[in-house]
Give the backbone structure.
Amino acid sequence: MLTTGEIAAQLNKLVFSILLTGHRKNEPAWLQPLRTVRHHSFWLIVRGKGTFTINGTMYPAEPGKLFVFIPGMLVERRSDADQPFEYYFLRFHYTETYEEKEQWICRSPAESPFPLQGMYSLQNTPQFIYWMEQLFILWQRRGHITAMRRKILLQEFWLALLQDFRAQRRAGDTTASIELTQDYMVQHYQEQLTLESLAQLAGLSVSHYSRLFKKVIGYSPIDYLTHLRMDRAKELLVLSDYRLKSIAQSVGYHDEFYFSRMFKKIVGLSPRDYVKRHRAEPIR
């Protein structure tokens, strides 16, 4: 799979010719039987639901999905009976043409495969609907200046697509870094973890890390760590005969009285009352 930078490098070498663009609303239970794609094109789904089967793999066709088709693909398209979909489409030709070391290089699509194909999920769908609306409007007009504006808009579309990919990757990387610290807390809850050390592990500032952690996990980092420790303490209180001080230390608290206060705050019972309620043997 190509990186965003590699896709950008390839797109930057291509010169496009728009063959057709349009806006369609399908009938309920619409079906386009399996066929071989003859032209490069893409479809942007804006409403409804359905499925596209591409080379034997089925994909959901729903708002926010962009499908890029290349010649030779085997494609079947169908819409749901109760939610027919609405979409924009654009058919295009291209050639690879660029200058390198003061020489022009030209390649046909057969020599330079298109860097995008299949289904893509978009993050900022309204932006792409806007580009397609504008392209559709311009398609219905004629003139050399209008044709130039169409080409510029198509380039803007590709640029917006690359920026959307990059934004998704950053969001995915951020979520992964949050989940990394979450796993780290699960494995090291008994250690003296600090908000600063967790933020450093995630590669984020303390304030940014705290906001993102709560957005992704639902707790602040410290609240999450506290709940982890109390969940483990509940297990030890019920299943072991360790003294309260030992249990407190085993879950990251050197002060058993502070641990008892936090336990009651989170659980609603003191450690002793929790033991009385959940097992017969008294805590020592």
Notes: The beta strands are 14-25, 31-36, 40-47, 50-54, 57-61, 65-69, 74-79, 86-100, 103-107, 118-121. The chain has a mean pLDDT of 90. The longest strand covers residues 86-100.
